[in-house]
Amino acid sequence: MRIPTATYRVQCNASFGFTKARELVSYLGKLGVSDLYTSPIVAARPGSAHGYDVIDPTRLNPELGSEAEFQALADELRARNMGLLLDIVPNHMSATPDNPWWAGVLRDGPSSPYAAFFDIDWDAADGKLVLPVLGRPYREALAGGEL
Question: What distance in Å separates the CA atoms of residue 12 and residue 27, rounded to the nearest whole number?
């Protein structure tokens, strides 16, 4: 197992993708950085500034670049004996229609092939999904005696 000794984190988004990260590798190597640490790089909601609103964890975020550009980044790191650390936060999936996994759970409930990927207590509501959503801002709901 390879153990990182010095990491450098980059925040990937549409204006800082795989190509720009690759452009830093030589400089970071000269600084003694052993590993590039990135924010999430899998498909996030369109326009995401941070990548923590994932809609498909099985593919790269096209706003960050192509698979070839990602491969070029990985090759550049490997050529300099540097590693790549990926920030993966499983519970940071976007709960929007943009996310087909979430849409499948809303549509098919516990029979969805994606139901097990979410922490849902199906028994608590007779197999229905209960979302804690307020009809107005928290302070207003609290002041109105709704909670």
Answer: 18
